[in-house]
Amino acid sequence: GERGEKTGRPETQSSGGYQPGANQMTDTAERLLRDSPPKKRTRVSKEQEALQRQHFSEYLTWRQMRDRCFNPSSHDYHKYGGRGITVCEEWRHSFVTFFTDMGPRPDGLTIERINNDGNYDPENCRWATVKEQARNTRFTRHITFAGKTMCMKDWAKHLGLSYTAFRERVAKWPIEKAISFPYQKDQCRGN
Predict the structure, then answer these.
(1) Which of 53, 63, 156, 186 sits in a 20 to 30 Å window from 69, CA-based?
(2) Residues 86-107: what's their mean pLDDT?
(3) 9 vs 107, higher pLDDT
(4) Smallest Cα–Cα separation from 21: which of 32, 10, 35, 33?
């Protein structure tokens, strides 16, 4: 059929006009196609192929990172691309650049965004343990006191309290008192 005058989308046969939902492409996919530069169909050099094979775990991390941010069919898209998290242009289009910036992945570590609401880019990414990442989620409560910021579990450990005891302090006292009040043996229950 002919293209709709204002949208550039194909008109449907039945009505002669554009109907929402008649196009098979989702709005998100259409936006990604519209906003993304056209893919270059260049051949990967032998050096790039060798790097991908030699550093397959890093290559897999790179592929999964891009998938989470740009593929609406990805299982985790809603946690990343759906929240507006993206990958810097240099990394999006080049595994070599990603690898040059991040370096080899140490055993037991995975990629982490330091600012959990920030994008994947050299200034905001590092290799981190699962434990470090568990303390850096959008659901983790961080407390700043006397210029020091830690999550509640780390504050509890720092103060020699159980997490439960510290959580109870924070729930009923101002932060200053919850952190400064002397440790009492009976508050260590629930460890």
Answers:
(1) 53
(2) 95
(3) 107
(4) 10
